[in-house]
Every structure is written in C-alpha cells, then in structure tokens.
Amino acid sequence: MSTVELDVRNQAGLPRGAAKAAPRTHRSFGDPAFRVITLICGLAVAIAMFTLAGVLIFNSWTAISELGVGFLTTVAWAPSNGRYGALAALAGTAMTTAVAMLIAVPLALVIALLLTELVPPGIARVVGTGIEMLAAIPSFIFGMWGLFVLVPFMQESVAPWVTESWLGQVPLIRPGATFQGGGFSILTAGLVLALMVLPYITAFSRDVLLMVPRVTKEAGYGMGSTTWEVLRRISLRYALSGIVGATFIGLGRALGETMAVAYLVGGDFLTVPKSLFDPGTTVASLIALQFNEATTALDVSALTALGLVLFVITMVFQVVAHVWLRRSQRTAGGRA
Amino acid sequence: MSAPQSGERRPATPSLALAALRPRSHGRRKALDAFIKGFAYVAATVGIAVMLLIVYEVVRRGAATIDWGFFTELPPVVGEEGGGLGNALLGTLVITAVAAALALPVGFLGGVWLAEFGRNGRIATGVRMVANVNMGIPSIVVGVFIFALLVKPLQHYSGVAGSIALAFIMLPVMARTTEDMLNLVPNELRESALAMGVPRWRVTLGVIIRAARSGLITGAVLATVRVAGETAPLLFTALSSPYWLNSLFGPEGFFGGPTANLTKTVYDFSGMPYARMQELAWGGALVIIAAVLGLNVLMRLVFQRGKEW
Fold first, then answer.
1. Number of domains in chain B
2. Does the distance separating the beta carbons of A256 and B136 come in below 8 Å?
3. Tens of pLDDT along B153-170?
4. Which end of chain A has fewer CB atoms at under 10 Å, N or C?
5. Which of B24, B28, B33, B36 to mutate to test the interface with A (most CBs of A within 10 A)?
6. What is d(CA A267, CA A257) in angstroms, rounded to the nearest whole number?
7. Bridge partner list, A280
C-alpha cells in the first residue's frame, strides 16, 4: 500500500494526542468490556477445538492402551473377541480419496481457467454459481442419488464393460475376491466424492488464479503464447502454492466425508480392497455404520479412536493447506 | 530460428537455452490449446449437469409425496401406507434453531474481535488458523466428540446434543464470515465515526455492522442452512425417533431423549425395502434441497443488491 493509512482498528494505532483529546468519561467502561467479551468469543472458537481433541484422546485411551499400534496395522473389526484393526478402513479411505482427487483436481483446474480466462465475467458468474451449488447440496442427497442412480449404472454398464475388456487384467482394476458386481465400490464412492470436492477446489483455484498479476499474463500472451502455455508456464508457477493449498482443502474434505460414502462404498470392513471395483469401507463410514451397534466399552473406545485418527489426519491436511494458501497470498502481495 | 549455421539440422547437442527457444510445431501447440479449452468447457458442463441431474432426480422422485399430510403426520408403521415426516421436520427446525442460537452470537462476536481488535496479532493469527482448521474437521468426528462429551455421561441421546454438535460446526464458519465481511468495510467509516467521539463499541455495533449487514445476514443464513442438511453429527447425538417432540425433559423431549430429525430419518428410510418409506425419504430430501438451494439463491440475490451500500 502506497498511502500512509491510519489504521484505527488497532487501538494503539490512534495518534498519540487522540486519547488525551477525547473526553475521558466516554471511553471508561463500554470499550474495555466490549473488547473482553469479543475476545472471549474469539477464544471460544479455539477452545472448542482443543476440547474436541482432549475429549477424543481421553475417550479413546482404553483402545489405544489395549490395542497399541496394531490398531492401525491389522485388519479386524470383531467386537465379540475384542480385536480391532483399522487397516482396511485406512486403505479404503486412501483409495477413495485418491480416486476423488485424480478426477477432481484436473477438472477443477480447467474450470478455474475457464472462469478466469475463457468466458466473460457475466457468464463466469453464472457458471461459478452453478458449480458452487454442488457444494450446497447436502451430503446424504449425494448418497441417495448415488445409491439409486449411479450404483445401478456402474453395476450394469461400467463395471461389466471395463472388467471384461483388456482393462480387466490391469492391477487395481481386475476384480478381487470380494468383487460384488462393481456397483457398491471404491470407484463409485470416489466418483461421488470427486463431485463433492470439485466446488471447493474450483473456488480456491479460481481465487489464486485471479491473484496472478494481469501484466505477467499479458506479457506471456504478447510473446505469442497460447492460453494453455500461459496457464502452465506462468499462472500455475505463480499460483502453485495456492493450488497445492486448494488441493489439500479438497483432500481434507474427501478424507472425512461420511454419509455419501457410507451409502456407496459397500461397507466391507474386513478386506483391504484389491481393486477399484471391489467394495470397501472408509474410516468415516465405518464409524457411521458401527457406532450405534457398539456395546462394550472397548468397542466404543475403538470407534472413538477411529474418530481421533480421522481428526489427526484431516487436521494435518488442513494446516498444510492453509499454510500454503497463506504463502501464495504473501508472494502475490509481494510481487504485485 | 535464426541459427548462424547453414542447413536444416541444428547442432547435435544444443545448449539448454537454445532448446527452450526452439519453436515447436505451430499446429501441435494450437491443437493442445484447443484441447485444453474444450476440456474446460466439458468439465464445467459436466459439473453443472450433475448438479442439475441430482436436483432433477430428487424433484422427480420426491414431488408426488409432498402433500399436507407429509408436513403434519407421523411416519407410518413399517409396511403401511400414508403418513408423513411431520415430527422429523419439527425436530430439524428445533435442533437447527437452537444450534443457531448457540453458535451465531458467539461466532459473530468472535469474528468482530478478529476483525476489529485481534487483527494481525499473534493470538488472532492463531485463532484464525484454528478456525480454518476447525471448518475442515469431518462432521462425523464432531458427532463422536459430542457423543463422548454429552451422550455417554448422561446415558441418553437427546435433541440438544444434536444442537450442540451442529453449533460446533457453525461456530468457526460464522466467526470467519463475520471477519471477512467486516474487513470489507472501508476504514474511513471507522475513522469518521471515531472522530465524532463515538465509543468504539458503538462504532462497531452501530456503524460498521450496519455497513456489513447484508453480508452478515447472508453468512448467518447460509451457515444455518448448511448444518440443517448435516446427517453425520446427528447419528449418535439426536439419533431419531418415531414420535413427536412433546416436552423438554421427558423421554420424548428435547433434553430428555432421542429427537426426530429430517436427515437421519431420510437416511434410515432410504435404506428400507418398503416403497412408502423410500417415497417419504425422497420427499424429505426434496424439502431439504429446496430449502438449501432456495435460500442460497435468495441470499445471492439479496447480497448482490446489498453490495452497493
């Protein structure tokens, strides 16, 4: 910012004489009280999260101490004999998320390109709103739609066609021992997840692409570059950290999405899926489907531990995402 | 390329810089560019088409179910005809309203602190970071948290536990929205009001917030609508109930026992092998999607008009 600006929002930023000049009686009680009340509310946001972390750790302690690291490295979920292992759910989570990101990130990037470069602002606003409306649709409706529309389609058309062609011999596509027709599968869940995270990645990507200075892009076009070359060699390099941040925001959402996945993934929590067409489970949907069945204290504790695992994983991705997004803002501010 | 050498072939090992400058086939560059552009149009079309397809499917399957009884009657006994989702609608309204009453004021004041006092200080940066991270916590984890915090010690599910879970999700959203909206208010407005000798708290509540009013209302409404469509946080907090919400502390009351709500009921019914239950589920989905998308569009229109303040 070039002009010297008096930032009155910072109390200390008032010019020195101002405090003395103002009549004392007017700033005696209301201001400090207001400040403290709002501060408490601000801190409440932070306290809420630390309470969540504390309560989850406390309540999963039984499971952590009895099951140890084996909880993360074994495949089992049998309340009857007290054996719990989350490996299948972790693998399923990784697979559905990977499918979702592989589909959503390229789509989101080109849609962001469309919104910023290819269409006039009026049309961009309509298209952008349409994409954002995907984010407004509640997750269980994605699940129901998937259940009644996408599952039959995958089962009757896509899965037979793909698995019986030469593609059916490729690892990760060749049906495993638990194959159930491909309707309820990692792939179906991943597809719906891709649609669910698409608006988030698109919105963040659009915002960082808009931060690329116009002059830099125009220099590229002036050199005779095509739109794609400007995007790849100028905008993307400039906005890379922001795009990474946007991707991680989407990744965090895909990891923790519950209802849509619970409808579609098949709920097989005793097998590490060998194929995208096999059914499986994810950490979030395992919690959703098992929690109300939980009877013993260890059972509840093990499911709470799953919640803790999910919390830690998503928190890591969120922190990384916001650090990268902030970095992109800084570089944009510095170079503009 | 104006290479000094005569003849078509370039040196066998050109320098890297020269390699970068070597003109690539014009046609191939143009084709790639056209492909990417085409891909962009296709991608945007697919995204919007899927959104419309989902809405269409919900309307197609749900519209026939919506009648007066849908809003006023209890769900039928499994296998019977008729009935509605009246209790679930009422429950969702109550649970969401209480969540909003808990989260919106606190989130709003927290946002005021971030924008007006905390600014770029260390505490504010930390709180902002936590709020951002908080918005990414999976809602199922919030459900587990409230179960462990309230349901397990009290040994019963309750509507209020559901409200608290939803409030937890709304809190950071409201705080960050408020902060963003207040940051849009020009500083001159604060300066003018302060220069007239108005105390800061009155400047904030009377002037700044009035200036940011439309954005704040939009944020509050959208945050509320979003949690109204949440299922995962209610699975083990409010649970579900076939009865009307009929008291505060009784076994069918808001504080005393499981409380019917639209999302969990729709989730349960959609998995049942009875035609009537599935019809009701689609009807419930239609009510929610109409409310969510309707309010989203409405707020956008209001907000765009309010921007010119």
1. 1
2. yes
3. 999 999 999 999 999 999
4. N
5. B36
6. 14
7. A266
In a domain, B31, yes or no: no
Residue B278 has pLDDT above 80, yes or no: yes
CATH of the domain at B95: 1.10.3720.10
Contact residues on chain B for A52, CB-CB shorter than 8 A: 137, 141-142, 145, 168
| pLDDT surpasses 50 at B181 | yes
Give CA angle at A229 (A226, A231), nearest 5°.
Answer: 110
pLDDT category of residue A15 using cuts at 50, 70 and 90: low
The whole domain housing B285 covers 63-306
Interchain contact, B197 vs A318, CB within 8 Å: no
- Interchain pair B140, A310: CB under 8 A: yes
Would you state the structure tokens that stand for residue B305, as one six-digit string? 């008009």
**pLDDT tens-digit map of A31-84:** 888 999 999 999 999 999 999 999 999 999 999 998 888 899 889 888 778 889
Residue B136 included in any domain:
yes
**CA distances to A80, A138, B57, B84 from B228, in Å:** 36, 9, 21, 19
Do the chains contact at B263 and A140, CB–CB below 8 Å? Answer: yes
User: pLDDT tens across A278-316, in order?
Assistant: 999 999 999 999 998 888 889 999 999 999 999 999 999
A315: chain B residues, CB-CB within 8 Å: 133, 136-137
Instruction: Please give the pLDDT value at position B7.
Output: 43
> What does CATH list as the number for A70-335?
1.10.3720.10
> Do the domain assignments include residue B213?
yes
| Residue in the block written with tokens 């505060």 | B248
Backbone angles phi, psi at A85, to 5 degrees: -150, 135
Q: Where are the domains of chain A?
A: 70-335
Interface A-B, measured as beta-carbon pairs within 8 A, has a size of 289
8 Å CB contact of B230 and A130: no
